[in-house]
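Q: What would this chain look like folded?
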Amino acid sequence: MMHEILRQSLRWAILVTLITALLSILLHAASATLLRGLPLWGGMVVVLIIILVGVVFDMMGIAAAAARECPFHSMASRKIPGARHSIVIIRKADQFSSFCNDVVGDISGIVSGAAGFAVVVALVVSLDFHEGRWLLETLTIGLISALTVGSKALGKTFSIRFANEIIFRLGKLLFILENRFHIRVFNVKNKKKRKRKRGVLRAPRTD
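A: My prediction, written as structure tokens:
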């Protein structure tokens, strides 16, 4: 049993590492491309969007860990769309939270810092303010860190309090993606277990 758990954990860790590397490269390349063609205020908007993405995914990961499974069973028995997907999210809360909080959350923090640095460079060049560059960099990184930490703190309070509502809406989104666009994130098919009948006596065979 312990060997199986370790094997699954190692497999998930390797997968998360590969996904993190791929996403960080894609997001950094995308943000760098956007910042290159945008004015200064547009670069600030990009930074805020990256921070918002990290906060939203952080809220989803915490909600998955804090949500309760029981209310969704009655909803699933009534065949309410999204209920079964919500149950799967809660049952896989460890992997889901790891992806949302560790992968997307950490990447957004790194990329937002890099994007903020690019905005500072553009500001220094436009204002010809090279002597105070270190001050602008310090203030910008401090502002980005404050916005990120403060927004995540507010989001955590909200996601813990309304965990089931958040997961249900996320389950509805996964339901729509699967049924309308044929994009399956989780396998929600019911696995019917065959039950052996006990106490049934067969008549002896007669030749």
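The mean pLDDT is 82.
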